[in-house]
Write a structure and sequence with these properties.
By secondary structure, the chain is mainly β. It has one domain. The protein has two helices and eleven strands; from the N terminus they run αβββββββαββββ. A hairpin with a 5-residue loop joins strand 9 and strand 10.
């Protein structure tokens, strides 16, 4: 695992060098992700509007306040807090400053629950962070300027007993839109 993390870190550095085009890794088949290539999620919460777009493989783009930044996510090797998704832990200040932000700590994956009540407890509103739809797509985002200019974004697909829900109390369907690539 240490070697794969080192390789991903080097890929991120090389991609930041003009003229260097390294191969973006595919998402391993074991990982439980939410987004497919070209999919775009737009979410509005108390912090404003964020667009998250899935690039090729592990690449994700985050657009807020008129500009876009990207990361190459890391696949989880084992479940962490229920997720076997993908994440980026935000090592150092890896982005050119935009809107006070120089780094990202982001996650994407599935969360499985036995009941709607358990799912709602997981999504309990933290000062307007979470927005979710009846189908269980849940997105939260915030800027943490006191944490060295950090962007936090979580994208989860909620499952209840192995199925996507059809109705979740407190959902705000109009606050999340999803676009798929036109083929």
């Amino acid at each position: 695992m240490k070697r794969s993390l080192m390789c991903l870190s080097m890929l991120i550095v090389f991609m930041a060098i003009p003229g260097c085009h390294a191969q973006i890794p595919d998402v391993p088949s074991r990982n439980e992700i939410v987004m497919s290539e070209g999919m775009k999620i737009s979410v509005t919460n108390k912090n404003g509007t964020m667009d998250i777009t899935a690039g090729k493989g592990l690449q994700r783009f985050y657009t807020w306040a008129g500009d876009t930044r990207s990361v190459i996510m890391w696949p989880r090797e084992e479940r962490w807090r229920g997720s076997l998704g993908i994440y980026f832990p935000g090592q150092g200040n890896h982005w050119k400053e935009h809107d006070g932000i120089t780094r990202a700590v982001v996650e994407e994956g599935q969360q499985h629950f036995k009941s709607v009540e358990d799912a709602i407890e997981f999504l309990r509103d933290t000062e307007g962070y979470w927005v979710y739809r009846d189908d269980g797509l849940a997105v939260g985002w915030a800027k943490y300027e006191g944490a060295g200019g950090t962007l936090g974004v979580d994208v989860w697909q909620i499952y209840i007993n192995g199925q996507k829900p059809t109705k979740l109390p407190g959902s705000q369907n109009d606050k999340i839109t999803v676009e798929y690539p036109k083929n």
